[in-house]
Design goal:
- This protein has five helices and 28 strands.
- 13% of the residues lie in helices and 34% in strands.
- The relative contact order is 0.10.
- A hairpin with a 5-residue loop joins β17 and β18.
- The chain has two domains: 295 residues, Neuraminidase (6 Propeller); 124 residues, OmpA-like domain (60s Ribosomal Protein L30, Chain: A, 2-Layer Sandwich).
- By secondary structure, it is mainly beta.
- The strands form seven sheets. Strands 2, 3, 4, 5 and 6 form a five-stranded antiparallel beta sheet that branches.
C-alpha cells in the first residue's frame, strides 16, 4: 500500500492544484527577483520556502506559524518577539510529526493549540492499491512548558480535508475549512456550536460561503469581527482577505479589507496581533511561495447586515401580497433549518405575536437545478419546517398554511450561482388583513 500525502496547503493555493511546489534553488533564485515588501521585523521568518498561517499568544509576543523550510512537508514553528523583531524560528517538536502539520491556531487564553495534519492516525481513504490520507484537525494543550500530546478532534474529522481551525474569542464556536479530498475548489467554512446539544456542524451562509473557495476564517481584534480568505470576484488578485461580523447569530456581508492588505497576488491567511495584521501573501501573481507581511490595522467600518435579512416590510404588506425572504437557510438537500436562520425566524415570530390577526401562507421555492418532483417535495418540506418552528414557539397552527412551488416560479429563469441564490427563497403571503 502506498500512502499518498498532499503537499503543503499554500503550495496548493498558489497553483490552484493539489500538488506541492518543488522549491529548487533555481526556483528560489527566480522568486527573489520578484518585488515583495521586505520588513526587517520578519527578516528571520521569511525564506524561499512557504511561511503561512501565523497565530499569536495572548500578549502578542509569541508566534506559531507553518513553514516548509528544510522539508518537503509543512511543520509548525515558534518565534518570539524581541526588541521589535521576530527571532529565529524553532520547530515545535512537541506537536510536529513526520508528515504535514500546518494552519495552527492558538486560543484566546493561549492554552489550546489547534492545527491540521495528515499524520498517521488521520482518516484514511482506501483506494485501488493505495491509501490516501486526509487532513484532520488536532488539539494540543499547554502543559506548563509547551503544547503537547495532540489528539484528533473526532467530532469534525471526516474523509474530507479539514484545515484552518479557529475558535471564537468566547470559546463558543469552532470554525474550520473543509473540502472533499482532491477538490479544493469546493472549499467552504464550517462551524460547530460547542454549547449546543449533539454534534451539529453547519456551513456558514451563502453570503460568506459564496462558492469561491472560502477558507481560513479567524476572529479579529474584537468579539464580533472575523476575517477569511476567498477567491470571489471583485478582489485585487487571486485569494483576498475579507472581513465580516458575527453578532446575535447573524453574519454580516463580507467586504474586502481596506488598505494594503490585499495585493495582485494571493492572500491566504491573516491574524491580528499588537495592532497589526500579519498576512500570508505572495504579493504578485507569479510568485508561488508565501511570505508573512505586516500591515497596521486601520479604523474599520462595521460591515452591513445582509440585504436579504431586512424583513421590516412585513408590516407594510396588504392582503394577498407577499414578501420573499432569503435569510432562512437549510442544510444542503434537506429541510433541516440552519442555526443561521434563527435571527430571521425570531423577527417573524415577534411580528406574528405583535399582529395576532395576521395569517400567512408559507411557500417554499427552490432553484432550477434537479428533478421537478424532487424540488417540489423539498420546497413543501422546507415550508413545513418553517411553519413547525413558529408553531412550536406559540403561533396558532390555523394562522399558518404551507405549500411548495418547487422550481416553477423562479425570480430569474437561469441556472448558476447568482441566479440560484435569487431563486432559493421562502415566500410569506399575507392571507388576512393586519
Amino acid at each position: 500500500m502506498r500512502r499518498i500525502i498532499l503537499g503543503a496547503a499554500l503550495a496548493l493555493l498558489a497553483n490552484f492544484l493539489l500538488s506541492p511546489i518543488d522549491a529548487t534553488p533555481n526556483t528560489a533564485a527566480a522568486l527573489e527577483t520578484k518585488t515583495i515588501r521586505t520588513q526587517p521585523a520578519l527578516a528571520q521568518i521569511n525564506t524561499a520556502a512557504q511561511e503561512f498561517a501565523p497565530t499569536f499568544s495572548p500578549d502578542g509576543k509569541t508566534m506559531v506559524f507553518s513553514s516548509t523550510r528544510g522539508s518537503k512537508y509543512s511543520h509548525l514553528y515558534l518565534s518570539r518577539l524581541v526588541d521589535g523583531k521576530w527571532g529565529a524560528p524553532e520547530p515545535l517538536h512537541s506537536v510536529n510529526s513526520q508528515f504535514n502539520d500546518e494552519t495552527p491556531f492558538l486560543s484566546a487564553d493561549g492554552k489550546i493549540l489547534l492545527f491540521a495534519s495528515d499524520r498517521d492516525g488521520s482518516v484514511e481513504i482506501p483506494g485501488a492499491g493505495q491509501t490516501r490520507v486526509s487532513f484532520d484537525i488536532y488539539l494540543a494543550k499547554w502543559d506548563g512548558k509547551t503544547w503537547a500530546n495532540p489528539q484528533p478532534v473526532h467530532e469534525i474529522n471526516t474523509q474530507w480535508n479539514e484545515k484552518s481551525p479557529a475558535l471564537s474569542r468566547d470559546g463558543k464556536y469552532l470554525f474550520f475549512s473543509s473540502w472533499p479530498f482532491g477538490e479544493m475548489k469546493r472549499s467552504r467554512i464550517r462551524m460547530l456550536d460547542l454549547n449546543a446539544n449533539g454534534n451539529t456542524i453547519e456551513d456558514l451562509p451563502p453570503h460568506i460561503n459564496s462558492g469561491n473557495q472560502e477558507t481560513a476564517l479567524v476572529p479579529g481584534e474584537d468579539d464580533t469581527r472575523y476575517y477569511f480568505s476567498s477567491r470571489r470576484p471583485g478582489g485585487k488578485g487571486g485569494w483576498d482577505i475579507y472581513q465580516t461580523r458575527f453578532e446575535n447569530g447573524v453574519w454580516a456581508d463580507a467586504e474586502p479589507v481596506p488598505g494594503n492588505v490585499n495585493t495582485a497576488g494571493n492572500e491566504a491567511f491573516i491574524a491580528v496581533a499588537g495592532g497589526n495584521y500579519f498576512i500570508s501573501s505572495t504579493f504578485t501573481p507569479e510568485k508561488q511561495d508565501y511570505d508573512l507581511n505586516i500591515e497596521p490595522v486601520p479604523d474599520l467600518p462595521i460591515a452591513k447586515k445582509p440585504a436579504e435579512e431586512n424583513i421590516a416590510d412585513l408590516k407594510n404588506l396588504k392582503k394577498n401580497t407577499s414578501i420573499d425572504i432569503r435569510s432562512i437557510y437549510f442544510d444542503f438537500d434537506s429541510a433541516r433549518l440552519k442555526q443561521a436562520s434563527t435571527p430571521t425566524l425570531n423577527t417573524i415570530l415577534t411580528f406574528l405575536k405583535d399582529n395576532p390577526k395576521a395569517e400567512f401562507e408559507i411557500i417554499g421555492h427552490t432553484d432550477l437545478n434537479g428533478d421537478n418532483d424532487y424540488n417540489q417535495t423539498l420546497s413543501e418540506q422546507r415550508a413545513e419546517s418553517v411553519r413547525t418552528w413558529l408553531v412550536e414557539r406559540g403561533v396558532l397552527e390555523q394562522r399558518l398554511t404551507t405549500s411548495g412551488a418547487g422550481k416553477s416560479k423562479p425570480i430569474v429563469a437561469k441556472r448558476g450561482k447568482p441566479y440560484d441564490e435569487k431563486n432559493r427563497r421562502t415566500e410569506f403571503k399575507l392571507k388576512s388583513e393586519l
